TrEMBL record:
GO process terms (BP): DNA-templated DNA replication; double-strand break repair
Keyword Transferase: yes
tRNA processing found in the keyword field: no
EC top class named in words: transferase
Residue ranges that the Swiss-Prot or TrEMBL entry lists as coiled coil: none
CDD domains (alphabetical): DNA_pol_A_pol_I_C, DNA_polA_I_Bacillus_like_exo, H3TH_53EXO, PIN_53EXO
Source species of the chain: Acididesulfobacter guangdongensis
Protein's UniProt name: DNA-directed DNA polymerase
UniProt catalytic activity: DNA(n) + a 2'-deoxyribonucleoside 5'-triphosphate = DNA(n+1) + diphosphate
UniProt similarity note: Belongs to the DNA polymerase type-A family.
A GO term for molecular function: DNA binding
E.C. number: 2.7.7.7
Domain DNA-directed DNA polymerase family A palm intervals: 768-974
């Protein structure tokens, strides 16, 4: 029996290589904002932290495989079935060893040997002194080490395996397990064994004969002729397999102990090393060849772009296997041959290197781990240096003192309004939710549950704080009541000459608007700047920005606790750093100041104006949808023969597949793809039976009705719950809907509408038209809709410089007709509607990088036909093909692609080695510059139209943007001039250069009429 685990005496030996491999493949490909892969590091770090905490480990070691194994010399195909370590994983290995050491564990690796060999050596050594060991692994090979003193813990399955459990399971002693592997082979390590002998036979043989020697000693007496023949024919193979499955007994263990050493440039050019007790000073190593660390390299910048080429592993004077994989740190491995690791005490864990962990986790953006380990609050650095000497986040300018900061701050006012108390939630993003509640109340929202009425009564005191930072007043925070009385501050906010800085300025605008205060000259939004500089990050919260810049903040001279608590001061601090970074790139500078910031003001105006809705029409439509859904439900129940919850996929699946016996296509899935496939198959069968006069045709008709009813029911319910009911709840007292726009949510720069999302209002179908008909112009006004015609294809023509496409657009040709003629080899006049439809799918499919498989699905043709269509297109438009191939190469090289305006679109997973992921990334790389350029074009058009309306002092309002479409609420007497302005600004030749832009303008009393 395994002795009880003792904190004082037991050791945990962690098969680290096994776990970082599993972490790499278990998690989806993850990268930080700089494009460096982090999935294996994150998964491994979580595992090790959890393990250490769960078992309160006092003694332990993390043990790694070397890249080369001596077993290859015994059998050249050993592990030959395994793919090379993916490059994305190779890059992460250094950091996994470093984190192991920073968490306090001793780290071991021995050239030519595997982690299993070292684990076997250590367990044997410790067992002689009756110490117990727990091996943490999910590999089966190590089961042969099980004994009363050794157990195995599988962290993935949370299972403890003892020698007793092993014997009860297999009926053999653990040390005999190597014979099982030798006989049946091991596919994971490509140990050949004997083909024809499986686990069951191997176990039977070892239970009977005890060992390989026992088998071959009594082979002549064996009765099983087939097994006997196999054993006789493969004796040499099975003994060679035994060597591969056994652990090396004699190995130079004293050469295996190494210490990862990290050098980085922080305040004071300090070296952050692993635990001080483990370090061998690199300066004491004689620099007699290039394999040694040059002390001049210590303290180099540690940005992604500037990682050192001089970081070497030291192992008996030869390069080891982890060179140049870091992302900006100098990592070296120092092997201590003089360090004696013999007793349990030698494996005692050191104190965690919190500073090292904090640096690494911040670099990889593992903020959840920083919080979990409380690293940010534990660090108490006494290094106070100028921020100009710190390069941790890639930003190189920062003010050196508050006094100097105030001098820079002339005519600039930073604002932050904390609305946490309104929504009982700490540090809400830009106080947006609180702002929404305020404005809903002011507008008289119909839905009391959402209006926040209970939050704004006399008995519930609001304690929102307004944070400010300016050159006149320094930094301070003020409660709402005092703020509203302070005319001087309000004058600053409304003053056009004072540039405003803040996080999510439009939310601040909405908040102040509730109190009839206008925030003018929103100069710099740090959330939008964060998105422009790091668009690959999904969230750009204030907390994330503080985490990103906290190290620079710690280095600011004369900083006080009050300043650190002042969110306006922090906003201004971040602004200065971001501004310097933006100013380095003229394209980014132009996008930010000429497009993104002016657009923010326009979007705030659109949100405030809102879109008029016919409440009665919407209410009637909602009731109609409910009635129609109930009719569909009745039809479904009749065919099913009973009532059930149609909205439950599980119950619907039981009715369809268990009771009505529909064919299962994707297990028990009832998604729309399955329903349409079943419907299509049944239609074909039904038609065939009708022609034959078969009585089964009526059964198929019932089944078709069932499927049609399910599809229709779901559609009605979705329209009701997602659109009509939601829109009714969001109406203000004036009958208007106020959406919110985000400029920082999409990877291509497209705007995102939310709360409610008006970009998702359906355009197709009778109900979709009815919903749009409910969006109306007020009495005496007209809705004007203007949308770009085939803008994606026009951008593709321009960006690829395809002369044929460009000429077609210049000549105002029907591009789909032209493609149909080219692909099908038929004159334009002979092209029918179906051919043109297919050509349209081909044209837009090309833009999205559609494969022959994807196109075959869209057109319901074979992949061979689809490939012919695509090849025919590229034959006529080779420039498009050249663009697609080269943009993918550019994405792989840089990690991002650019729009024609210079906006960077970072492509997640573009360098992933996973075959099921990289094609998606490549398609995204092809489409992003096209979609991103189209988004930039309409943004510029919006700005130009808005400015023209203001300059002419017209009353017409821009009230919505839906990707390629703009909607205006126009005064009747301004319609004609508005149409001229729209036409002029949206088709301006400077927007797309050599390719003309075309728009369709419509007008009407409702959105459906105007579109």
């Amino acid at each position: 029996m395994l002795k009880p685990l003792s904190i004082e005496s037991d050791i945990f030996l962690i098969d680290s290589s096994s776990y970082f491999y599993r972490a790499f493949y278990a998690l989806p490909p993850l990268v930080n904002s700089k494009g460096f892969p982090t999935g294996a590091i994150l998964g491994y770090a979580r595992m090790l932290i959890k393990l250490k905490t769960k078992f309160n480990i006092k003694y332990g070691a993390c043990i790694f495989d070397s890249r080369k194994s001596l077993r290859k010399e015994l059998y050249k195909d050993y592990k030959a079935n395994r793919i090379e370590m993916p490059e994305d994983l190779v890059k992460q290995v250094d950091y996994i060893t470093l984190i192991s050491n920073f968490l306090g564990f001793k780290t071991f690796k021995l050239e030519g040997y595997e982690a299993d060999d070292l684990i076997a050596f250590i367990t044997e050594k410790l067992s002689k002194s009756s110490k117990t060991a727990c091996i943490v692994t999910s590999d089966k090979d190590l089961k042969q080490l099980l004994s009363p003193n050794v157990c195995i813990y599988d962290a993935q399955k949370d299972v403890l395996i003892t020698d007793e459990l092993f014997e009860n399971t297999y009926g053999i002693k653990p040390e005999a397990f190597k014979y099982i592997l030798a006989l049946m082979g091991d596919t994971s390590d490509n140990i050949p064994g004997i083909k024809g002998i499986g686990e069951k036979t191997a176990l039977s043989l070892i239970r009977t004969y005890g060992s390989l020697d026992g088998i071959y000693k009594d082979l002549d007496l064996m009765k099983q002729s087939k097994i006997k023949e196999l054993l006789a024919a493969h004796k040499e193979d099975v003994y060679n397999s035994l060597k591969l499955a056994s652990f090396y007994k004699d190995l130079p263990f004293e050469q295996s102990y190494f210490v990862p050493q990290l050098s980085l440039n922080s305040a004071g050019n300090c070296n952050i090393n692993s635990n001080s007790n483990n370090i061998i000073d690199s300066s004491s190593i004689i620099n007699n060849n290039d394999n040694n660390i040059n002390s001049a390299d210590i303290g180099k910048d540690f940005t992604v772009q500037n990682y050192t080429e001089n970081s070497k592993n030291l192992n008996s004077g030869e390069n080891a296997d982890c060179n140049n994989r870091n992302i900006g740190y100098n990592i070296s491995y120092i092997y201590d041959k003089d360090k004696r690791i013999e007793n349990l005490e030698d494996f005692a864990l050191e104190q965690p290197n919190d500073e090292g962990l904090y640096k690494i986790f911040r670099e990889f953006e593992f903020y959840s781990l920083i919080k979990q380990l409380n690293l940010d609050s534990n660090l108490k650095s006494d290094r106070i240096e100028s921020l100009n000497n710190s390069h941790s986040s890639g930003y190189t300018e920062a003010p050196c003192s508050i006094k100097e900061l105030s001098k820079i701050c002339e005519n600039e006012l930073a604002v932050y309004i904390d609305c946490a108390d309104i929504i009982n939630k700490s540090d809400s993003i830009g106080c947006e939710s609180g702002v929404k509640q305020l404005n809903l109340k002011k507008r008289g929202c119909n839905n009391n549950a959402d209006s926040g009425e209970n939050l704004f009564n006399d008995t519930n005191k609001i304690e929102e704080k307004v944070y400010l930072f300016s050159n006149k007043n320094g930094y301070f925070n003020i409660n709402l009541e005092d703020f509203l009385k302070n005319k001087e501050i309000i004058a600053e906010l409304t003053d056009e000459t004072v540039r405003k800085i803040g996080f999510d300025i439009n939310s601040i605008r909405r908040y102040l608007k509730y109190y009839d205060i206008s925030l003018n000259n929103g100069f710099f939004d740090i959330a939008i700047a964060s998105y422009l500089l790091n668009p690959i990050i999904h969230n750009h919260t204030f907390e994330d920005l503080i985490n990103e810049f906290s190290e620079k903040l710690d280095g600011l001279r004369e900083i006080t606790a009050d300043a650190k608590e002042n969110k306006a001061f922090l906003s201004y601090f971040i602004f200065r750093l971001q501004l310097r970074e933006i100013e380095k790139d003229n394209e980014l500078k132009k996008i930010f100041f000429d497009i993104d910031m002016p657009l923010a003001t326009i979007l705030a105006n659109i949100e405030e104006t809102g879109f008029m809705v016919d409440k009665d029409k919407l209410f009637v439509l909602s009731a109609e949808l409910e009635i129609e859904a109930q009719k569909m439900a009745a039809a479904i129940y009749k065919i099913a023969g009973r009532k059930f919850n149609i909205n439950s996929p599980k119950q619907l699946s039981e009715v369809m597949f268990d009771e009505l016996k529909f064919q299962r296509i994707k297990k028990n899935s009832t998604d729309i793809e399955v329903l349409l496939k079943l419907k299509n198959d049944l239609e074909l069968l039904s038609d065939a039976y009708l022609k034959d006069g078969n009585e089964s045709a009526s059964v198929y008709k019932d089944y078709l009705l069932f499927l049609d009813s399910i599809i229709s029911y779901r559609n009605k319910i979705k329209l009701k719950t997602s659109f009509t009911d939601v829109l009714l709840k969001k109406l203000d007292r004036n009958g208007r809907i106020h959406t919110s726009f985000s400029q920082i949510k999409t990877s291509t720069g497209r705007l995102a509408s939310k709360d409610p999302n008006l970009q998702n209002i359906p355009i197709a179908g009778i109900e979709g038209k009815k919903i749009r008909q409910a969006f109306i112009a007020p009495e005496g006004k007209l809705l004007i809709s203007a949308d770009y015609s085939q803008i994606d294809l026009r951008v593709m023509a321009s960006i690829s410089k395809d002369s044929s496409l460009i000429e077609s657009f210049k000549n105002n040709e029907d591009i789909h007709l032209k493609t149909a003629s080219e692909v099908f080899g038929i004159k334009s006049e002979d092209i029918d509607a179906d051919m043109r439809r297919k050509a349209k799918v081909i044209n837009f499919g090309i833009i999205y990088g559609m494969s022959p498989y994807g196109l075959s699905k869209e057109l319901n043709i074979t992949q061979k036909e689809a490939k012919i269509y695509i090849d025919s297109f590229f034959e006529k438009h080779s420039a498009v093909k050249y663009y697609m191939e080269n943009i993918v190469k550019e994405a792989k090289k840089n990690g991002y692609v650019k729009t024609l305006f210079g906006r960077r679109c970072y492509i997640k997973d573009i360098n992933s080695s996973a075959k099921n992921i990289s094609p998606f990334a490549e398609r995204a790389a092809i489409n992003a510059p096209i979609q991103g350029t189209a988004a930039d074009i309409i943004k510029v058009a919006m700005i130009n139209i808005y400015n023209e309306l203001k300059n002419r002092q017209l009353k017409t309002e821009m009230i919505l943007q839906i990707h390629d479409e703009l909607i205006f609420e126009a005064e009747m007497n301004e319609v004609e001039v508005l149409e001229d302005i729209i036409e002029s600004k949206m088709t301006d030749k400077t927007l797309l250069g050599d390719v003309p832009l075309v728009i369709n303008i419509g007008k009407g009393k409702n959105w459906d009429e105007a579109h």
